[in-house]
Amino acid sequence: MRFQVIQPLKYLLLDHPNIVWFRWSPTQSWGATWSFLVTAIVAYITAALTLHLILKICRRRRAIPLGPIPAIHSLAMSLISVTIFAGMLFSSGAEIRDTRWLLRRTRTTPIEWFLCFPLGIRPSGRVFFWSYVFYLSRFLHLLRTFFIILRHRKLSFFRLFNHSILLITSFLWLEFSQSFQVLAILFSTLVSSMVYGYRFWTETGLSQSKSFSFTANCHMLLLCCNLVCHIGVLLLHFLRGGCNGIGAWVFNSVLNAAILLFFLKSYVNFYCQRKNTSCATHGSSLDCVDDLAKHASLIAKSKT
After folding, report:
1. Cβ–Cβ contacts within 10 Å for residue 27, how many?
2. Is 90 helix (H, G, I), strand (E, B) or coil?
3. Is residue 63 exposed (0-12), middle (13-18) or buried (19+ Cβ within 10 Å)?
């Protein structure tokens, strides 16, 4: 019985012809052109700004009911993330197994392969198929912006910037066969499966409290893991004579650094506001005054 389940699953995640013979190409892959990427980002930003402006003009204060749509979206994103995680993990193992002769000749360990692709690698095969699926899932991820606008009438520059950068990053991974993308996808899909699973849990009413700290801590953990891996890529690039797609990696690193700064600012401001509320509730004690002074200094440093 177990064998009957594993074999079809292995075929769907590893051995399907569309996976094995995948090739990133403008003529064979949907959305694989620069013009499409630019058009998609411009359309996303324009649509979000237009919807936000319309609601502002109409002065609608009540949230627009969306029914089960956000819950279905969260469930779909969680299941897609789990599928991509499993497919990328198994495909990485198969790729290392099939190319172990090359790894031995170049004295490359599996850990080094995860961080640093050898020079000249082409965007084809199992690993890049799941990278392509991850790229397509970013378009479905954009819908959450419109849910927030319709429900809360809020639109932040950080959200537009972050979602657009995620789309650009996943495109560059494929376009330049960039190193480090395997670990980045594994980390990102693992966090997304938990975050969207939690959002589905709250959307369906199984939990009455929507905790910002859970999703924020998950994303903070993701950013920290990416930061450590970026340092590893940089070291391997100079020690081993180069990693494939290093130019795209540098560009993505700059964008990720900007996202990290924006997120850290929001993260610190949230906990400062929560600390202020706690102090106001429990009275003006010396401990609260000291804590508020410390958090105020953090905000002042982040703004300078």
Report:
1. 7
2. helix
3. exposed
Residue 71 to residue 61: CA distance in whole angstroms: 22
pTM score: 0.82
Distances (CA, A) of 111 to 16, 169, 247: 26, 22, 21
d(CA 153, CA 8): 45
Residue-level length of the chain: 304
Percent helix, strand, coil in the chain (nearest 5)? 80, 0, 20
* Measured distance CA(260)–CA(162) in Å, rounded: 10
CA-CA distance, 135 to 161, in Å (whole number)? 17
* pLDDT given at position 5: 62
Cα separations in angstroms, 215 against 116, 150, 189, 218, 282: 29, 21, 14, 5, 27
Contact 163, 255 (CB under 8 A): no
* Whether the predicted pLDDT of 288 surpasses 70: no
67: left (phi over 0), alpha (psi -120 to 50) or beta: left
**Gap between the Cα atoms of 232 and 221, Å rounded:** 17
d(CA 87, CA 127): 8
Q: What mean pLDDT is reported for the chain?
A: 81
